[in-house]
Every structure is written in C-alpha cells, then in structure tokens.
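Table S2 (continued). Query chain:
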Amino acid sequence: MREFNEIWIINEAGLVLYHTVNNATAESVELFGGFLTAINQFTEFTSKQSITSLNLGNKFLIFYRDLETKIIVIGLTESIQKEKHLRNILKTLYKMFEKKFGKKMLKGFNGGNIQQFEVFSKDIDNFFSDKTHVVDGIW
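Corresponding output:
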C-alpha cells in the first residue's frame, strides 16, 4: 500500500466492512469508522456535499463515495499532492470490492458477519504489489 498508510471501507451506517493498515496497529477501527461516517453525514447535511478530504496535520484522509451503494472508501496518506490520483485508486479499490461481493449485498448489508470481507486482503495485496497497475489512465 505504497500510497496509503490505512484504508477503510465503510457502509452508510458507519460499519467498517474492511480495514487494512500498512505498518501499525489500529486503535479502534469501529470507533474511527463511526467518527468518519458522522463527519461525512454532517458535511452532507450542512453543505449538501460529501466530504472529499480531511487534513489531520501532517496526514490526510481522502474519501471516495459510491452514490448507489453509499459505501465510502477512505485512505490515510501523508501526501495530498496527487489527490485526484489517490481518489482514483480508492475508486478502483471500491470497484474491486463491489465486483467481489456484489452490489446487491453491499447495498443491503446492515450488520452481521463482517469477517466475510477479510478475504479482500489478498486483492488489496495483489493490487499494490503490481507495479504496473493503471488507475483511470494514470501511472
């Protein structure tokens, strides 16, 4: 995951469906997922727009949201210089996730066995280990 330190895939209710961390241990994945969802919902309520990025001092959260399934993919990075490129990577990861688990399941998932999503780790590893992957014409 050379571009991101952490990646979260969260549903509309704030449930963390998938999380991966590059080299540290996550503190409270569920709490952070709920926090990020609340920030996004607050932004939508007050400005009628989804949040696209969030500055956390020397780190940045980049958001990609699928409008149909309302799944949010969030990446933590130390550089925001290529924000569009980073968001395209998150979009590609979402498309891979959707293909693996199905749009119908993602739209209707409101709790239960989230361990089923752990198999996505292999897809993430393969994606980031492939030095030639192309994201929307970039790379």
